Amino acid sequence: MEELCATKIRDRDGNLHYSLVPTEGTAGNAKPLNGSLDYWVKQFLLKSTCVCNQVILRTHPAAASPLASIVDKENLEGVLGTIAGDNTLLIICRDEAAAQALHTLILSISGME
To answer: For the Arginine repressor C-terminal domain, which residue ranges apply (predicted)?
Structure first.
C-alpha cells in the first residue's frame, strides 16, 4: 500500500477507505481529480487561517495527511514543509508574504473568499 501511496481517508458518511495519491512518476499521467490540490481543497477543507508565516487548515476527519502529501508534492513557491494530524494541517512557509499568498490561493480554490 505504501508503494501505491495509498492513504486511509474517511468519506462524508464516516466510512474509512483507501485513496491513491499520485507520485512523481505518475503525476504526468494523473487526471486532475483525486490527486490535485484543487480536488483535495474543494472536497475536504473546512477552514483556512493564516498566522505569521504559517497556514493552518482544518479538514474533515482523516483528510489532513492526504492534503499534506498533495501540498508537499506540489512544490508550491515559499512552502517549507507540512505537519499533519487527523483533521489539522500546519503549512510552514518561508515568510509572511508566502503564507498570505498560499492562504489566498487556498481560499480561492475552496470558494471561501
So the answer is: 42-106
